[in-house]
Write a structure and sequence with these properties.
By secondary structure, this protein is α/β, with parallel strands linked by helices. The protein is 43% helix and 15% strand. It has two domains: 228 residues, Rossmann fold; 284 residues, 3-Layer(aba) Sandwich (UDP-N-acetylmuramoyl-L-alanine:D-glutamate ligase), CATH 3.40.1190.20. The structure holds ligand NPW and potassium ion. Belongs to the NnrE/AIBP family.
Length: 517
């Protein structure tokens, strides 16, 4: 599990060490970690250090100091480095060290911004040390102008020649929210100190951060609760249930599915295919015979009927995908949601959620659907606001409903009603295609069915039992994202082909788990 801590908590963890006179040691550890990553990136890009050029954007605070000390180390390895001082103030010792190592400096104030931007765009590496955890709001003033100009001069990240490495975080992102309010220099890599910060995992902040490196600088974060967590492969693998010799189809977990309608039969077929590929004892399908017939073309093993939820014994339910204009499906959704069993609630069923439910009810809206879930509970928010601050609004929805809320997007946010937050960035933009969400709900449903009677699951991955369903949803997002990336190696993702990839990802995760034991 990758734990992210709020900027405030990281600073609180630093405080006793700084009081004990170790501030400089922390800074040198941070700078050394940053230097090491830059060195590795230069090597990977085949550029080496001698003759390479670096531009260090150094702000007024300790973030600028970290960047300058990393620049000092690069200078001693033969890199030609220029520091652009973005504020009147600068850390005197760090600047002194940088200059003594042979670095040149330019004050942004009074300089020609487009000249500086052109110089930065032509460098081998740009280190962004304008703002760190001391930032408030987006970049302002001339620093904002500089970043805008560098961005324009260097071009989009994929086409740039200069590598951009963010010091602690891309300057201008919300440390705890990932909210991007002004210009931000999208980084190829971010080297963050002490622990990941939530803003590096969430939404636009995660996009700007690029590849994340966490450098241990010796902070003790144990007393602080993580502000966000990301499941790693080993965590998802620990939630996969491998059948034993005494298992049978019922003991492995049965997933009831009330999805699809005459108008949208495909969603049910996609969800069922994904659930079977994730691994369940059985899928019981409830819905129109015409939809069952479509499901059976690909998955004849699904057991179908037209009866009510009460007559289809299951360990978990999946309701909603493609269930539109169908009163029977609406009734089944309501019955499943109030059954007390874990239930994944998607699309058309989101409007059937009563005032208050428990965390075993897993809502899987996209931003537009979340807007409606919130509006139904008196919370008005624009879709764009939800997309800009997905974690904030997912937590609001979890709090308002009592449900676990998985918010789909570039990063998948899972909020538990306890306030726990999981963020997964496993997906590929190729998964942004019709039917993708149906397969995600099928995966989460299958995991829920197999874990519904597994009392040790929360402990196995080190989460509080009340947050188990959030972790299960996050594991579903991980498997879905990895399956999408695997599928994208063949070309644009065709969602109906995804079950093959889901099965392969499950096999890979289980193999990694076996090797780790
Ligand atoms: N503590 C430690 O020992 C360690 C800390 N570490 C490092 O320190 C970093 C935190 O350093 P920090 O606290 O000095 O804050 P930091 O982010 O550099 O700058 C804040 C200054 O920027 C300004 N400013 C604010 N908002 C702005 C805006 N929107 N737009 C423009 N300017 C803005 C504002 O200055 P002002 O404008 O008020 O003059 C404010 O004072 C942390 O990220 C990590 O890298 C590591 O070395 C490990 C040890
Ligand atoms: K920075």
């Amino acid at each position: 599990m990758l734990n992210a801590f709020s900027g405030g908590d990281v600073r609180a963890a630093e405080a006793p060490l700084i009081d004990a006179g170790q501030g400089d040691t922390l800074m040198q550890r941070a700078a050394h970690g940053l230097f090491g990553v830059v060195l590795g990136l230069l090597r990977d890009a085949g550029r080496g250090t001698y003759g390479a050029t670096a531009v260090v954007l150094a702000g007024s605070g300790n973030n600028g100091a970290d960047a300058l000390y990393a620049g000092e180390r690069l200078l001693r390895r033969g890199v030609g480095a220029t520091a652009v001082l973005t504020s009147e103030r600068v850390h005197a010792d760090a600047l002194d060290a940088f200059v003594r190592a042979g670095g040149t400096t330019v004050r942004l104030d009074g300089a020609d911004v487009s000249d500086l931007a052109a110089h930065a765009a032509a460098a081998d590496v740009v280190i962004d040390g304008i703002l760190g955890t001391g930032a408030s709001g987006g970049l302002r003033g001339t620093a904002a102008d500089l970043v805008r100009a560098i961005d324009a001069a260097a071009g989009p990240r994929a086409a740039r020649s200069a590598l951009v490495v963010a010091c602690d975080l891309p300057s201008g992102i919300g440390v705890d929210t990932g909210l991007v309010q002004g210009p931000v220099l999208a980084a190829d890599a971010t080297v963050t100190f002490g622990a990941a910060k939530p803003g590096l995992l969430i939404g636009d902040g995660a996009v700007a951060a690029g590849q994340l490196h966490v450098v241990d600088i010796g902070l003790d974060l144990a007393p602080f609760p993580p502000a966000a967590r990301t499941l790693l492969d080993a965590d998802a693998a620990a939630l996969l249930r491998v059948p034993g010799a005494r298992d049978h189809k019922y003991s492995r977990g049965v997933l009831g599915v009330a999805a699809g309608s005459i108008r949208y039969p495909g969603a049910a077929a996609l969800a069922v295919g994904a659930a079977l590929a994730t691994g369940v004892g059985m899928v019981r399908y409830l819905g129109p015979p015409a939809v069952a017939a479509l499901i059976h073309q690909r998955n004849p093993e699904a057991v179908a009927s037209t009866g009510p939820v009460a007559e289809a014994r299951s360990q978990a339910w999946l309701v909603g995908p493609g269930a539109v204009d169908d009163d029977d499906q609406r009734t089944r959704a309501r019955d499943a949601i109030t059954s007390g069993l874990p239930v994944v609630v998607d699309a058309g069923a989101l409007t059937e959620v009563p005032e208050r439910v428990g965390p075993q009810v897993i809502l899987t809206p996209h931003a537009g659907e979340l807007r409606e879930v919130l509006a139904a509970r008196g919370v008005e928010a624009e879709r764009s606001a939800i997309e800009a601050e997905p974690a904030h609004f997912a937590l609001r929805a979890a709090e308002a409903t009592g449900a676990t809320v998985l918010l789909k997007g570039f990063t998948t946010i899972v909020a538990a009603p306890s306030g726990a937050l999981f963020v997964q960035a496993d997906a590929t933009p190729w998964l942004a295609t019709a039917g993708s969400g149906d397969t995600l709900s099928g995966i989460v449903g299958a995991l829920a069915a197999t874990l519904a009677e597994d009392d040790g699951a929360a402990e196995r991955i080190g989460v509080d039992p009340v947050d188990l369903w959030a972790a299960v949803a996050a594991a579903g997002a991980l498997i879905h994202g990895r399956a999408g990336r695997r599928a994208a190696r063949r070309g644009p993702v065709v969602v109906s082909d995804l079950p093959g990839d889901i099965g392969a990802v499950v096999a890979d995760l289980l193999e990694e788990r076996r090797l780790a034991m």
